[in-house]
Amino acid sequence: MTDADGPSPNAAKTGSPVVMVVAWLWVTVPFLYGLYQLAEKSSKLFE
């Protein structure tokens, strides 16, 4: 097995913690907003 076959030693590096927080917020905030909208609109079905 050569070096080209295995994972790069730099592959395990993670990004800056600030970038990770921004990335999680980028996904989580719209998801939670969507869940809120879904709950709000679906609750009207059961009134």
Keywords:
47 residues, mainly alpha, 0% strand, elongated
Low-confidence stretches: none
**Main sheet attributes: strand count, strand direction, barrel closure:** none
Q: Which class do the helix and strand fractions yield? A: mainly alpha
Cα-atom radius of gyration:
21 Å
**How much strand content do the residues show?**
under 5%
Shape: elongated
Query: What's the total number of strands?
Result: 0
Q: What's the N-to-C terminus distance?
A: 65 Å
Give, in order, the helices and strands.
H
Helix fraction bin: 55-70%
Instruction: Please report the number of helical segments.
Output: 1
Keywords: Membrane, Transmembrane, Transmembrane helix
Transmembrane segments: 18-36
Could you characterize the architecture of this molecule?
This protein is mainly alpha-helical. It is built from one helix and no strands. The protein has one helix at residues 17-43. The model has no long low-confidence stretch (mean pLDDT 84). The chain crosses the membrane at residues 18-36. Keywords: Membrane, Transmembrane, Transmembrane helix.
Topology readout:
Layout: H1 17-43
Keywords: Membrane, Transmembrane, Transmembrane helix
Transmembrane segments: 18-36
